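User: Run a structure prediction on this.
Assistant: Running it now.
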Amino acid sequence: MSSSRSPWSKRSLTAQAMGRVDPITKAVVPPIHVTTTYIRDEDNAYSSGYVYGRPDNATIREAEDVLAMLEEAEAGALLFSSGMAAATAVFQALDPGDHVVASKVMYWALRSWLMTEAVRWGLAVDFVETDNLEALRAAVIPGRTKLVWVETPSNPLWTITDIAAVAEIAHAAGARLAVDSTTASPIHTRPLGLGADIVMHAATKVLNGHSDVVAGALAGAKADPFWARVASIRKMQGAILGPFEAYLLMRGMRTLHVRAAAQAKSALDLAQRFSSHPKVARVLYPGLPQHPGHDIAARQMEGGFGYMLSIQVTGGEAAAIRTAAKVGLWKRATSLGGVESLIEHRASIEGPGTPCPPDLLRLSTGIEDVEDLYRDLDEALRAS
């Protein structure tokens, strides 16, 4: 079911988890289906459509339907046991010898996997600044490049890639475009509508929003053989999400519109105020007019510029680490997108080879009072 076939908006459909009511109890909250196996019919068929718990589950299907509606995904959505499981399934669906072009600045764990394990799978991978269309065009090899992987806004520098322009480049070369839209969320960006073939989410983050689920998701523009292979990989490798986690994810998505809007509003407020802070050398946030990708972000993002920003601290790495040590309301922790605000010194997390400047602090804005968030970080910066 999609909003185009309903009189209700995406926000209304998401809030009510597509408006489904349990047919037996009439409960407005769908039950959790935990069974691993299903009864066969007398003729040995499965008329219910369910065979076994590893490839399929009713609770998981319900959460997938909500995400597919949000992304306007004709092929539907697939939930995975983690964001890494979702992302790597796309690359594993390629053939040995295929060429991949990926964003140079991206989630560090996936970048590390591409530099090590993907090579062992027989893939050739080149990393480029995908916000530089000329560099991207030069890296794509017509007939050989099979996948362009873009993360936008990119973590943790928040560069913006023009999805529509990259889709044209990829498709002209015979390649697919996959977009990691974790930090945008389907509330702010819908890559499939801009020409992408697949959109990926680390659903652990803002889709769930409560820092209590590890999950990943893919949504597809077209139910073609490649999409079927991705689904088969999830089935054969047992990478499906558990039913309880799917239930929690669906619970989180029901408040996505409210949370994402509030978090983006606070992130913009903080970005504007810290831009003139004496202890901040630079603020990285696409919602600022001085950001190099602001015009593109304004065109392809809706209702805000996301909940993530970074600041580069005057005084360098030592001052940045001291600042993170002195916060009270902000929490020093990895991850992003939750209702609590997080701060992290990324270079020390990513280690050697990171593109992250040593003076950078990554900020994930939650739903706390923005005045409290500003005061806490302001005091930590001045004390450092």
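The chain has 15 helices and twelve strands.
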